[in-house]
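Hey, can you fold this one?
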Amino acid sequence: MTSDARIARVGDLYVVRFERRLNHPVERVWAALTEPEQLKQWLAATEIDPVPGGRYALHFQNIEHTHIGRVIRYEPPHLFEHTFGDDSNGVVRWELESAGEGCLLRLSHSVYASQELANFAAGWHTHLELLEALLRGSPAPWNWDRWYAHRDSYVDQVQRCIHIGATNS
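Sure. Predicted structure:
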């Protein structure tokens, strides 16, 4: 299993970062990141009030849990930043940049505590695979086996980050 997240300690924060080249234009990917009917196919049933301070609720069916957070920045079609539930679960930032006929997606999730880093990295890794499947026109269901395999691949990287405080790739 490939672990393509970069996990780093930045000051008091731990940051999980992904960067993916997608063969789809920014507008197509932006729609998948922000339209509730598309989000439900790869992330969660979503309620979004797309203004700073607006409600952002993710109703995950795979774990029967809801994260209710708020929008921090919403700048279509390039930047979307929100809390991941309450502030204790950190801030998620989605950035899109045109790259030829496709785009570059940058995702970061910043948190203060290290306990959930491997789980967050595995979750985002798995959800990004589902996003890519949706963009290809073949949405796929959540797969716990993939999540567990990804989590196992991130455990050592997280431990190195916690113990030496350095960026790990």
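Residues 6-164 form a domain with the Alpha-D-Glucose-1,6-Bisphosphate; Chain A, domain 4 fold (CATH 3.30.530.20). Let me know if you want another pass with a different chain boundary.
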